[in-house]
Specification:
Blueprint (H helix, E strand, L loop, with lengths): L1 H18 L3 H27 L7 H15 L3 H12 L29
Helix pairs in contact: 1-2, 2-3
Length: about 120
């Protein structure tokens, strides 16, 4: 149900981007689509990558690639980096590349504060 809800909102926000003449609605559509895209990636593509959504691994891989393609990311490159870095040394400073993805989130308690 969560997937259907997120996907429907994502489709609506994407459609709004192309069919609105109002700048505020356009901006709102972009923001909504961006936030929902991240939610789709974190909630579903990650689980599909680890073959935990469907019993069929091919279906998991197809869903994973479809979501990342829709988000404009290279699915296999993300999977390679995620498995080789994060799963090799999860949450270990200087080894887990997921810890250095953004300065918006402090993933390490002792890391520097950013603006």
């Amino acid at each position: 149900m969560k997937f259907i809800f997120y996907f429907a909102l994502m489709a609506i926000s994407y459609t709004v981007i192309f069919y609105t003449n109002n700048v505020f609605v356009l901006f709102l559509g972009f923001v909504m689509f961006g936030v929902l895209s991240v939610l789709m990636g974190f909630n579903f593509a990650h689980d599909l990558c680890h073959n935990t959504v469907f019993k069929n691994n091919k279906l998991n891989n197809l869903g994973f690639i479809a979501i990342y393609t829709m988000l404009g990311a290279h699915a296999e490159a993300w999977k390679f980096r995620h498995i080789r870095s994060h799963h090799y040394a999860p949450n270990v400073k200087d080894y887990d590349s997921d810890l250095q993805i953004t300065q918006l989130i402090r993933a390490e308690p002792g890391s520097d504060h950013s603006w």
